[in-house]
Amino acid sequence: MKYDYDVIVIGGGVVGSAIARELTRYRLKIGVLEKESDVCTQTSGRNTGMLHAGFLYKTGSLKAQCAVEGNAEFDQVAKELDVPFKRTGKLIVGFTPEHRERLERFMERGKANGVPGLEIIDRARMDEIDPSAGGNFAMYCPTSGILDPFQYTIALAENAVKNGAVYHLNTEVTGAQALEGGAHLLHTNKGDFTSRWVVNSAGLNSAKVSEMLGIPGYVIAPIKGEYFVLDKKAGAFAKIPVYPAPNPNNTFDTHATPTVDGNVLVGPDSLEVDDFTDYSATQASMDGLIESGSRMFKHMKREYFIRNFAGIRPKLIDPVTREIQDFKLELRPEVPGVINLVGIESPGVTSALPLARRAAALLAGQEKLEPNPSFDPIRKGIVKFSEQDRETQAKLIAQDPNYGEIVCRCETVTRAEILQAIHNPLGVCTVNGIKYRTRASMGRCQGGYCETRITAMIREELNKKPEQVELGFKGSWMFTGFMKGGAAK
Amino acid sequence: MKRTFTCVLCPNGCDIEAELENGQVLGVEGNLCPKGKEYVTQEVVDPRRTIATSVPIEGGEIPLVSVRVTQPIPKGRIFDVMKAINQVRLQAPVHIGQVILPNVLGLESDVIITKEVKSVQGQ
Amino acid sequence: MRTERQAVIVGGGPAGLAAAIQLYQQGVKDLLILEREHFLGGILRQCIHDGFGLTRFGETLSGPEYAHRFIQQVEDLGIEFITDCTVLDISHDRVVTAVSKAHGMIQVKAGAVILSMGCRERTRGALSIPGTRPSGVYNAGVAQSYINLQNIMVGKEVVILGSGDIGMIMARRLTLEGAHVQGVFEVQPYPSGLPRNIEQCLNDYNIPLHLSHTVVDIKGRERLEGVTVAQCDEQLKPIPGTEEYYPCDTLILSVGLIPENELSLAAGVELDPRTKGAYVDEYYQTNVEGVFAAGNVLHVHDLVDFVSLEAEALGNAAAEYLKVGTLPPCPLEVKAGQEVGHVIPQRVSGTRDFTLSLRVRHPLRDCAVVVRQNGKELLRKKMRKALPAEMIQMKLLGEKLSSTGDLEVCVE
Q1: C146, A405: Cβ pair inside 8 Å?
Q2: Which end of chain C has less neighbouring CB within 10 Å, N or C?
Q3: CATH number assigned to the domain comprising residue A78
Q4: What digits encode the pLDDT tens for the residues A257-296?
């Protein structure tokens, strides 16, 4: 029998895209089914953008192994994929003797996990590293870093596509049927797909998909966290991520993290919710973040607020004790053809490639994989005008005059970049898709200047009617149509 | 009978208190200039307003050109005038002051262009 | 492209155009206007309603017509301008760096830099309005641009938050174009726009204005489905139990304007936290020598006529600076006293006439604006009403001023 794909990956988040990219190293036909309009609209795009070091997780756990491994290789990965990354280090600060005790415990755990360079430092050292950090003492972790989770996920997906993977956006799996020899028939809103292998990396929906594929029983608790995004004017004060000492549940409360672009993220808080899709900001959380964020970051001021967002971490829990579990990555003999990843949350971004290699290894244990001779790990991103020196900027404009037209003034994004983003390899055509790829409208005016230009460019470049332009999610129409005349440009 | 008006003739937006009787304005108070009384007198019998909107234009460097009425029109006829303007289609070039609907609906007000639009060659 | 100019004007909206023309007429003819849009005229191009020009021209015009009068003059005088050109940086020593498709990277050393970048709208993020992030939440100016420039309709069932003038004007525009505006909600107990706009944009179309109300929740995952509105107490905090849900597909925000001063900051210009614009003296010169500011980049105006007049005064002063090489010192501070939100200028010489602009903090009736120096009353202007929505201007005569002692402006 002939199948549509050798492997179908369900979920095009950071882990799904890393798996797709990893599998394109072999002669396999890869399809990715993503139910949203882009690859990083859920958990992968809604987090702090932290490259974790791996001191927080139980020694020997998959979380610890993958975080340490993913952290160590990331300079190389960032280079291959042309994504922004800064190895800033991180301060985990404490105020009380109890905090110090906990930090010391985590330092020991970190050392056992293989995290290099951990040390406890006093206030004077903290002031040398970042005077804007709160706290009386800190554990300093030099290997932690910051990245742009949008760019990273997009880069993995684009590199997968470059090496032959096919992305199906707005394609939601609604049912699965096991065929002979481990193959599967997947029902989706866009028709049926067949594949010899299925990888479940459905993130928030991983338990649901797991059950569809014949592995029931997993329980995911959606833990919502809200964030504030602060202006780059506040970013001038933040040099390094500042986290509070982990709480007794071994998770972090509100922290303040500079982003690779120079903003500051304050958050997340942590609230168990029922709804896996509820990304609303709430007054209670905002008030809480202002209070707790001010302890971590001395410049948490209203004048710097430019946006709020929320993310949901799919925590795999023990159904009885409700204790948070390790990442689940499995290939069960009784359910052939299914590689199952459940409960991938923080440190999922850091762990994406290590998990992908482990998933590929499970597959390789079942059949001989032929290397793909044309695999190219290099992906080139959009050249960012704002990141170049004046001389290079002038050269860019000389090569392509569209680099001389600023579309987003807050982030200094040019027409050339927007055009490249509109014609991205994944075929994403939403306003938010352009934003994640270029930063246009991420600045302090939040699209007040550039949104009208970007929607006009989407219409012109992709020959869309006004009513076909969408903000982000499928169905997020922006306009009812032309006002008068209809035919007007 | 006393009634309060907000004069819309200029940005001062005077709050005018008027003494009215049988549709007659007996006296006004609160206006900074004589136009206030004129406004109230008109407002009592036949309130009038100006409107501005836009008209699609072909062959121009922009897709829409702005227009307005030259004289206030009866408030009750605003949507009728909108309907009349919405029928209009223009061809570039157009110039400021160009009349597109003279004496619109017989209301003694013209609809004029308020933006210069050059034509684009090749269209 | 020549790399030196007597003056570079950053922004070809009403302020920049008026300043350029005035400079030219004062004999400063080596000018360059840099405008980021494709056309000159700034925000006026999308303000197609009438009501502009009564003070400046003695007749009422639409925004594009008002702008055209200045554009025509700039063209007639042959003042050089580049459109589609965005300024990236202004250095402390007045080197202006800009880019355009046609000219590439431009660097010009200016004798004087005129800051006339205007303002931008405050956003949902700055207000931290809770709720989801669907499409259909628009700033008033953005919706105005879609409707008046792009021929694109943003929605059908509309709620407006904020009673700024643009919000009210958009309420009327949307209604005229067939949308249904359910109401305008204002967190303050008084409107933030002009009374005439309440009358002719809201009352005329039976659009209710709800004072002391704000949006406390936004609902919808894809497109906006509705907003929850609550009444607010005197501290502007929502009162629990007063929430009401309004189904709608569009929320228009008209919640304030912020002078656009990122370039000013790059040049080393100090900003007044009250105006969010530069500290200027009576010559409209900032703390950085040779850098001047006027219009909405300096402080948000209610009427464009005042923007033009202010920029023309700037033009005279900048011309004097360029001819003489320096301007007299302005050591006296003008302080915003009781009930005064801010004043422009913040520093004066005490030796010559100047125009004082201010806004009151709260709506007041039967009050007087009083200017004092060294305990002496210099000026008292009686007012039947004073509204935060309106800018108050008055002329102070040099002969009445002392060259020592700060000035204080109060409303009593």
Answers
A1: no
A2: C
A3: 3.50.50.60
A4: 999 999 999 999 888 899 999 999 999 999 999 988 888 7
Residue spans of beta strands (DSSP E) within C11-118: 31-34, 50-52, 61-62, 80-82, 85-90, 95-100, 104-115
* Cβ-nearest to C303 among B11, B50, B67: B11
Of C62, C204, C390, the CB nearest to B66: C62
- Which residues of chain C are within 8 Å of residue A481 when distances are taken between CB atoms? 152-153
Per-residue pLDDT tens over the stretch A171-201: 999 999 999 999 999 999 999 999 999 999 9
Mutation site for A-interface testing, chosen from B64, B67, B90 by largest number of A Cβ within 10 Å: B64
Helix and strand element counts for chain C (H, E): 9, 28
Domain extent at residue C195: 123-255
Domain count, chain C: 3
One-character DSSP codes across B25-44: EEEEES-SSTHHHHHHHHHH
At residue A488, the pLDDT reads 41
Burial class (CB in 10 A: 0-12, 13-18, 19+), A487: exposed
Tally of structural domains, chain B: 2
Which band of pLDDT confidence, cut at 50, 70 and 90, is reported for residue A250?
low
Asked if the C-beta of B120 comes within 8 angstroms of chain C's C-beta atoms, the answer is no
Of A323, A350, A381, which residue is a domain's last?
A381
* Residue B11 included in any domain: yes
Residue numbers of the domain that contains B63? 52-113
Give domain status of residue A414, yes or no.
yes
Interface of C with A in 209-248 (CB under 8 A): 216-219, 221-223
Nearest chain C residue to A233 by CA distance is C262
- On the 0-12 / 13-18 / 19+ scale of CB atoms within 10 A, C291 is buried
Please judge whether C101 and A397 are an interchain contact, meaning their C-beta atoms are less than 8 angstroms apart.
yes
Q: Tell me, yes or no, if A52 is annotated catalytic.
A: yes
Q: Which of C150, C170, C196, C381 to mutate to test the interface with B (most CBs of B within 10 A)?
A: C196
Q: Omega of the bond prior to A268 within 30 degrees of 0, cis?
A: yes
Structural domain tally of chain A? 2
Mark which of C208, C232, C255 sits at the end of a domain: C255
> How many A/C residue pairs have CB atoms within 8 Å?
140
Q: Are residues C354 and C290 in the same domain?
A: no
